[in-house]
Amino acid sequence: MAWSKVVLRLVIFFTTCSHNLNKRPVSQKVRTIRKGEIMSSMRHRFLSVNIASVIMFCGAMGLPAFAQVDCLTLSNRSPTMPNPVSGSPFITGAYDSIRQVTVFHQNIATNSNVTWEWDGAAWTQVSTAGPDIAGFNSSLTFDMVFDSSRGVSVMLIFGVVWEWNGATWTQRTDVLDPQPLTTSHDLAFDSKRDVVVTFGGRIDTAGNTGNQTWEYDGTSWALLSPGNPPPARSKHRISYDSDRDVIVLFGGLTSGGVVLDDTWEYDRVLDTWQQRNIAVGSTVPPARLFHGMVYDSERGVTTMYAGFDATGTGTSLGDIWDWDGQEWTLRGPTLDGVLLSELNRGKPVVVYDSARQRTVMIGGTLSDADNLVLELSAPPRPQITLQPVSQTVVAGQPVVFTVEATSSEALAYQWRFNGVDIVDATQANHAIGAASMADAGVYDVVVGLAGHDPFACPEAISDPVILNVNQAVAGDVDGDGDFDLDDLAMLLPGFTGPLP
């Protein structure tokens, strides 16, 4: 597709929506794609926005039960969480990928030590014991993460480790934390190394913050010494990007009261933190604290929700952002109507439900009862059923690569050569009429959902295949690039004269 057509379609997209919404501004970011751009995560999004997606986007605005940004749907689930709470509830949660339930632990005066599980359809109260944090300052937060290698949810409270195995809570008195006063940190589970990672947090009763990185392997904590650590902070969020093998960090609050808007990544292989400098002209999420952040493995992005802004007045943000390893993309607040107001909250619990392939957000601070269950989902990723095959040809011969895929929606294709988009190669078959030596290399194809914003929707990438192109040689019948006995054997049936 010509880039001029892409720009024209984007102009039509935003013009149409702005007109249909009584000229209210559309705040969704338009991302510029450079021809031949290769993502560090090798997830290249091909741009295919058309009038059909404009109609769907605008028509979905203002719905009370769900709202949709292209193929993303934010839904208000029912039933809501039992025993609604408001204000600043002590509630934390984690997704148990083994039992396929989200575990939430409530701990306030009226619902002390109550553990609930949500399976996507119903709530079950599973415990009335466990960590007691009801008496702590409401400005603090406590996090929980699921350790899939040991099958337990791990909570860290003032240096005390609690673990939930699906039946009982256990206080790990055998595990000592060198920083017993740490709160308002965040936890992430590194599934490649089977360790819980934590960074920063408040380190004393005076509210001073730290910038240490720790790992917990189920037996003990280890203080790491990575290079270039981020500035000290608390009330930030981290998540583990399992595709790129990095811990992603955003925002938080310094000891001096500054709310941050910086993005960092921790590479455990290199043992170093790196601040990600966002490209000039790209949009950066507003500074925030007490937000929610989780890695969406189906879409291959880190998704950030809501939180409190930098005004210091406790104003909550009602937005959704995606981080693809290169830059941030705004998904909300283009969700117009009831759900937009419901998204405005701080301290939400956000988890990724890998079985149902969606993020789940509950709780937080809102003006009314904070028991709403919001879920963000996208159509399933296309499934490639027939991979392209490597080929060897002689220069001048035709080549056809083929891929087959299935999806509940129409598919779009983008073939690539050595990682770079091939112009107009947007069909299930990619043909080369007469291969030349310059065509030799690696080919693959990105399969996505037609008519949708490719940055929001899941996509599939085929196996890479190799095209070998040999120089044409006289008498080379079998196309292996030389004339040998194999070619002579193939020629003999038609030979009528004496052998040379």
What attributes characterize this protein structure?
Immunoglobulin-like, Neuraminidase, elongated, five-stranded antiparallel β-sheet, six-stranded mixed β-sheet, disordered N terminus, 500 residues, 8% helix, mainly beta
What does this molecule look like?
The chain has 500 residues and is mostly beta strands. The chain folds into two domains: 3-58 and 381-485, Sandwich (Immunoglobulin-like); 72-377, Kelch-type beta propeller (Neuraminidase), CATH 2.120.10. Helices cover 8% and strands 36% of the residues. The chain is built from four helices and 35 strands. The protein has helices at residues 3-20, 51-59, 338-343, 485-491, and strands at 66-69, 72-77, 91-96, 101-106, 114-118, 123-127, 143-147, 152-157, 160-164, 169-171, 186-190, 195-202, 209-216, 221-223, 237-241, 246-253, 259-267, 272-275, 292-296, 301-305, 320-323, 328-330, 349-353, 358-362, 373-377, 383-386, 391-394, 399-402, 404-406, 411-417, 420-421, 429-432, 441-449, 460-461, 465-470. The strands form nine sheets. Strands 27, 30, 31, 33, 34 and 35 form a six-stranded mixed β-sheet that branches. A five-stranded antiparallel β-sheet has the order 1-2-25-24-23, with no helix packed on it. Strands 3-4-5-6 form a four-stranded antiparallel β-sheet, with no helix packed on it. Strand 13 and strand 14 (221-223) form a beta hairpin. Helix 1 (3-20) runs parallel beside helix 2. The protein is elongated and about 90 Å long. The termini are far apart. The relative contact order is 0.13.
